[in-house]
Amino acid sequence: MSFLNFDSYFSITEILVTEERIQAEFEQSLPNLGYLCASSKKDDIAPKTKLDIPLWLADALCRRGESIINWEIPKIFKDSYKEILEADACSVELCKWNQYFYELGLRLPRTTTDDNHKLAEFLLEVFKSRFRIIMDSEQNPFSTPLLRGQLSTLEKKLLVQGNSGKLQLLTWLNKGVKHIETSDVIDNIRKRKRLVV
Amino acid sequence: MDPSEVEFLGEKQLVSIVPNFSFGIIHLISGSVGPFRAGLPVKVPIWLAISLKQQQKCRIIAQEWMDIEKLNDSIEAEKRSKLFTKMPSNHFMDEAQMLLMVAPDDIPDADNIRTAVKDIWDLRMSKLRSSVIGFVKNAGTYAKLDHLTAMEINSIRSLLPDALDIMLHMEHGGKPTVLQSLNTTM
């Protein structure tokens, strides 16, 4: 199972990530869609209107042959925020910027491949330097709740998995020789049989 | 993988016992053990040794490396070397854990051996942690895992492979990697 593999229609992560709104500017007029823009009373959306639309919509509008919108990169991926991360990635509370920081960065519509590649490279650098926090707090499975605000969802998932592994190792070290437990599947089969009888 | 599963693999290692009963050869899928002659040492897998010991049918002879001086030498070597040093057994931690738990009375100096083994384990674990952090940070393309024992490799299994997977994903800019597209076509 892969943590970042969410290119599936039913992936909950994908749905949550693409819910994020990004700023877009319409290039063409859209008849009868004026209700999307709460502040205008016109029936149509005029060209050059700026609107925050969810990523899934922006993505679909970008994919068409002629571009209907011009979208702007979210501010957390802009240079000023990049500088903060470059200065010291470990002390940033990534969770407050965006729960799905990495996923969002990778999911943004592709404009120029070069730009996207740079962003992905940048995310990789951030992840690499923040990996230390995960590694350190993995050592202590009874982790402090303070840390939870600092990590993004992806990092949290990784940490939870690491912690459970560590916990298993600790119990093994304390208990020593013990019986290997029956797998859940086998247990359930027995229960099912009992139900049938 | 659960540590007890690694321990299960470690149970296949051989250990000498002195049985206090006589019995013919037992033929098992993994090989034959015995014959048992009362008072004569014989090599058996650890799982059998533990079971016989619990029934008080044998005395376990400590593994050759379970010697406080040899272990202290290993500790020193481990401290001096930047890399991992060779351990006497690929399952030294689990073997020590099992044998010392079941037969502390048969192994001379059991308490000191337990402390020494734990010392080596702690040293190697901290070495492992710092090398993993260095590996991720400097984006090494490969890691040399010489002399790492099964239990140690298993201890980073819950974190490292997934972290590397995430990094690979980011390196490819979120596009499906070669491996994944292979998987889908198969």
TrEMBL record, chain A:
Database matches in CDD domains: GINS_A_psf3, GINS_B_Psf3
Compartments it resides in: Nucleus
Pfam families named among the record's database cross-references: PSF3_N, Sld5
Cellular component terms (Gene Ontology): GINS complex
Domain DNA replication complex GINS protein PSF3 N-terminal residue range list: 10-62
Principal location: nucleus
Keywords, in A-Z order: DNA replication, Nucleus
Domain GINS subunit stretches: 78-173
Superkingdom as given in the UniProt entry: Eukaryota
InterPro entries xref list: GINS_A, GINS_bundle-like_dom_sf, GINS_Psf3, GINS_Psf3_sf, PSF3_N
GO BP field: mitotic DNA replication initiation
Protein family (similarity comment): Belongs to the GINS3/PSF3 family.
PANTHER family the UniProt entry points to: DNA REPLICATION COMPLEX GINS PROTEIN PSF3
Binding partners and assembly: Component of the GINS complex.
Function description: The GINS complex plays an essential role in the initiation of DNA replication.
Protein name in UniProt: DNA replication complex GINS protein PSF3
Lineage: Eukaryota, Metazoa, Ecdysozoa, Arthropoda, Hexapoda
Gene name tied to this protein: LOC105360478
Automatic annotation (TrEMBL), chain B:
Coiled coil segments of this chain: none
GO biological process: DNA replication; double-strand break repair via break-induced replication
Domain of life per record: Eukaryota
Domain GINS subunit: 65-166
Gene Ontology CC terms, in alphabetical order: CMG complex; GINS complex
Keywords, comma-separated and alphabetical: DNA replication, Nucleus
Tagged with keyword S-adenosyl-L-methionine: no
CDD domains: GINS_A_psf2, GINS_B_Psf2
Subcellular locations according to the entry: Nucleus
Pfam families with a match to the protein in the record: PSF2_N (PF25005), Sld5 (PF05916)
Domain DNA replication complex GINS protein PSF2 N-terminal: from-to ranges: 2-61
Known partners and oligomeric status: Component of the GINS complex.
PANTHER family: DNA REPLICATION COMPLEX GINS PROTEIN PSF2 (PTHR12772)
Family: Belongs to the GINS2/PSF2 family.
Name of the molecule in the record: DNA replication complex GINS protein PSF2
Gene giving rise to this polypeptide: LOC105369004
